[in-house]
């Protein structure tokens, strides 16, 4: 048994398909299948049910998969510890971003990160909070830029920036000529929101509920841009994070107004696993991201 065999086993458990698992491991399907069978022979126990068209693990197989995930995570930590005590800004770095941050933050930071840390090899991933947290826990990514919410409370969070949310209304809306609107003005109104699973939805709803507003149950978007386009078409109003709004505060049929009393906002942090030896690396990265955002929003 070796580390590569464990990687094959975990990939098969994740993809539930021999070809897809082999592609993820950059080997041929016969190679992966043969190594799994050799692993079974060396352990003397079947890991898979061979009489099914689907990939089905035996009880012993599932237990081994769980242990293999733990072993691979520990191997990753060992490699991190060997990386100049975590201070080196070189080599691969896998970073996750939530969908309401990635499209607006990445264009601001990637060039600057590459400029300051030319030996750092970035791998970028976009997924919802629960998926990124799981990937962090499993060691699939090194850190993630996410909003600070209950799901992330067990991680180490380095605050990157504080982001207000602005009210977005159509051109023809009675408020379009205003510069700001108190949140209590939303009392009795319904707002367009993202679908369940987006942390921005829960955060925005918290402020809306406090003001006496609700979400429009007839519409659930899968992206912030879909919500924005619905507003532009005159189908409602919404809250948009500041980094996602144009400097002109008016564009493509949408006006952006400051929401006040209170100002709806969220904390964006760079999160990593507790005990990671790469803390110094993450702190340097967070500092660069924070500077880029502050320069943009100031």
TrEMBL record:
Record keyword DNA-binding present: yes
InterPro entries cross-referenced by the UniProt entry: LysR_HTH_N, LysR_subst-bd, WH-like_DNA-bd_sf, WH_DNA-bd_sf
Xref: SUPFAM superfamilies: Periplasmic binding protein-like II (SSF53850), Winged helix' DNA-binding domain (SSF46785)
Pfam families associated with the record: HTH_1, LysR_substrate
Classification via Gene3D superfamilies: Periplasmic binding protein-like II, Winged helix-like DNA-binding domain superfamily/Winged helix DNA-binding domain
GO MF term set: DNA binding; DNA-binding transcription factor activity
Residue ranges occupied by any HTH lysR-type domain in the UniProt entry: 1-58
Cellular component GO terms, alphabetical: protein-DNA complex
Keywords in alphabetical order: Activator, DNA-binding, Transcription, Transcription regulation
Family to which this protein belongs: Belongs to the LysR transcriptional regulatory family.
Protein name (database record): DNA-binding transcriptional regulator OxyR
Organism annotation: Veronia nyctiphanis
């Amino acid at each position: 048994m070796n580390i590569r065999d464990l990687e094959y086993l975990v990939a098969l458990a994740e993809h539930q398909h021999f070809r897809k698992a082999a592609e993820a491991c950059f080997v041929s399907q016969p190679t992966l299948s043969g190594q799994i069978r050799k692993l079974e022979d060396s352990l003397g126990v079947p890991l898979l049910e061979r009489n099914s068209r689907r990939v089905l693990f035996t009880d012993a197989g599932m237990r081994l998969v769980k242990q293999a995930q733990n072993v691979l995570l520990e191997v990753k930590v060992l490699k991190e510890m060997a990386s100049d005590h975590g201070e080196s800004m070189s080599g691969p770095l896998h970073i996750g971003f939530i969908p309401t941050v990635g499209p607006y933050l990445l264009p601001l930071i990637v060039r600057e990160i590459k400029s300051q840390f030319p030996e750092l090899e970035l791998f970028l991933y976009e997924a919802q909070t629960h998926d990124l947290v799981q990937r962090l826990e499993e060691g699939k990514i090194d850190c993630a830029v996410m909003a600070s919410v209950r799901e992330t409370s067990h991680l180490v969070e380095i605050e990157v920036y504080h982001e207000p949310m602005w009210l977005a209304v159509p051109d023809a809306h009675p408020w379009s000529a205003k510069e700001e609107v108190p949140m209590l003005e939303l009392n009795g109104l319904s707002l367009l929101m993202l679908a369940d699973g987006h942390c921005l939805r829960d955060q925005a709803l918290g402020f809306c509920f406090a003001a006496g507003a609700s979400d429009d149950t007839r519409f659930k978007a899968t992206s912030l841009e879909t919500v924005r386009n619905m507003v532009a078409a005159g189908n409602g109003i919404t809250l948009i994070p500041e980094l996602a709004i144009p400097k002109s505060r008016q564009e493509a049929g949408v006006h952006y107004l400051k929401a006040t009393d209170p100002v709806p906002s969220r904390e964006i942090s760079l999160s990593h696993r507790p005990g990671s030896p790469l803390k110094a690396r993450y702190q340097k990265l967070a500092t660069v991201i924070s500077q880029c955002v502050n320069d943009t929003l100031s």
